[in-house]
């Protein structure tokens, strides 16, 4: 079922629906109080990877929990410095680093910070990354409650196209409309009836497939949402945003999206 109008999926100010139930956007759905997740994947499509996560809010924190549990080598950074990530490191075994160090040697980098913070990311952020690094953007534009006016997005540029321009590297849009708690608790084995599906958009077919394979390891199906110019179909306010449906439902939601950003989601 789609998220209730006015809720957010991803979690935390650094991307909760990529939120709190009573928030205007889907951000995390609260922090877990029990086991972190119900499903451990035994399938390994992409091999053990070095993953850098920039942003340790609800989405970044829960991806850190899940990727380390799957055996990936995870480094995590936030805006306040490694010393503030002690609890997450002790819980997961991830390595706390600065934002400028997060991508060093990484095969996958997850950018999960507020859009307004993207231009402030370190110059040369990806210079030390592995060749062919795949960058995942979980970002959403929340002009009224967080980001302020970003003129290019207001004029119709898809959010992830704007982020890509800021960091100077192709991105794949994923997790932006996903409730943070779902990452921990909704994963199911491949082929399971009712398995939740997530939309994934990007221009590079190989990079997009890597992201889809990682999401499959997390326990979710995926839907190819097209190139980055089509990624507006999964922005806040669209039918797929916060939707927990199966593949066919997510495909239908993407197809029914309108390119016009409603007043609720404009500055």
Whole-number average pLDDT? 88
Low-confidence stretches: 1-7, 11-15, 19-38
Distance between the termini: 28 Å
**In percent terms, what proportion of residues is strand?**
5-15%
Which percent bin holds the helix content? 10-25%
Q: If you compute it from the alpha carbons, what radius of gyration comes out, rounded to the nearest whole angstrom?
A: 16 Å
Strand sequence of the main sheet, in spatial order? 3-2-1-4-5-6-7-8
Shape: globular
In short:
The protein is of the alpha/beta class.
Description:
It is a single chain. Helix content is 25%, strand content 12%. The protein is built from eight helices and eight strands. The longest helix has 14 residues, at 205-218.
Task: Note the main attributes of this structure.
about 25% helix; about 270 residues; 8 strands; single chain; alpha/beta; eight-stranded mixed beta sheet; globular
Topology:
Elements lengths: L49 E5 L3 H12 L3 E5 L8 H7 L2 E2 L11 E4 L22 E4 L5 H5 L3 H4 L4 H9 L4 E2 L6 H6 L11 E6 L2 H14 L2 E4 L22 H9 L12
